[in-house]
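ARCHIVE RECORD
Type: protein–small molecule complex
Small molecule: adenosine-5'-triphosphate
Source of inputs: curated submission
Record status: active
Notes field left blank by submitter.
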Amino acid sequence: MNVLDEMNDLQSDLAQVIRLALGEQTDDVRLFVARLVRKYRAAAPELAEQMDLYLRSKAPRSSAPLRKTTTQRMTSEEALPMDDESRLSLLKVFQDSPDREQPLLSVELEESLNQLIQERRQIERLASMGLTPTRSAIFVGKPGVGKTLTARWLAAQLGVALYVLDLTAVMSSLLGRSGNNLRAALDFAKRSPCVLLLDEIDAIAKRRSDDTDVGELKRLVTVILQEVDEWPATGLLLAATNHPELIDPALWRRFDLVIEFKLPELPAVKAAIKRFLGPDYALFGRWIDILAFAFNGESFSDIERDIQRFRRAVALGTASDSDLIEEFIKSRVLALDHQGRIDMAVLLAKQTRLSQHSISEITGVSRDTIRKYSAEQSPEPRKTPRRKHDA
Ligand SMILES: Nc1ncnc2c1ncn2[C@@H]1O[C@H](COP(=O)(O)OP(=O)(O)OP(=O)(O)O)[C@@H](O)[C@H]1O
Ligand SMILES: [Mg+2]
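STRUCTURE (tokenized, with ligand):
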């Protein structure tokens, strides 16, 4: 299809949506959008996913008079369970294309995940030997290290949808109803092959301290305990937490697999910087070692946030790359101990054209010290800059 045809096609789709929407033909809009989701899934997966989310977040109004043909076609798309009172959807859906980029993972992590995927792909072979695949796993790790992202990628690799259970929505439901809500959501997920993620599963445990009915929370934990035990091998049940110590030991024991997500090491930090810079790597590439050193010990999402900030500033011309890096290093240096500052200063001396005077100004390390250390043979900076609070 040439560009012009594609434009016309897009335009006519747009016009059709507008026509239906202005005519308040909500059900027709839904049908048409469902068709668009299928149509654009291959060519524009992000768009398709977004439309799909809109579709699912707005359940069809049951009171709306449906035409007969509409009703028949609608049943294929089962509405997501939601809390009757708040109308909050209990599950979020992600349907990603399998060629979605793989998250940056450590070697061990990649191996565990590949094992999981292989088990699913060869489920019959396992069955012939009387074995079932791993049915449940719990992801543990600090915020922003890729737990949710990996769940999405995993589901896409397995060719199924990812449902994420919003425990906050479950628990915000009225007293006595959260157990039912939880069951409704879990039953829904059990009906089709999918990956279900119980995100921030520690949320239940955290609520123990406040005034929520203790009996209610116990019921929730009991529901989850049973479900983990009985989860069908057609689905994969995942949970994620950054507070493993808060998880009920009885629940903890029930997961087939514990997968630990660590903060990225130096090579992964570098890879992350490259990935997040995208085309702007051409501009920032010369700072890569300095950036990697400065970002070491940070989570992927923290790295991404700063990199996006740099890219926006450069795109709008509000700052130059060297201004940004300088200002960034200055802010980082505050968190480093004395040796960390020296390492940073030496790195700047070796890898940039900054004068010793400005390096000294940025890092607070005297020019004498910089000269002394730079003269030493290959003063490899330590792998991880020590932070002040580690001392
Ligand atoms: N391993 C990774 N590879 C590439 N990008 C990552 C990775 N981990 C995190 N990111 C980036 O950070 C964002 C947030 O990551 P994600 O939501 O997966 O973190 P999380 O571990 O689930 O954190 P939380 O505990 O706060 O839920 C991602 O959308 C992605 O842009
Ligand atoms: Mg998460």
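CURATOR ANNOTATION: The chain is about 55% helix and 10% strand.
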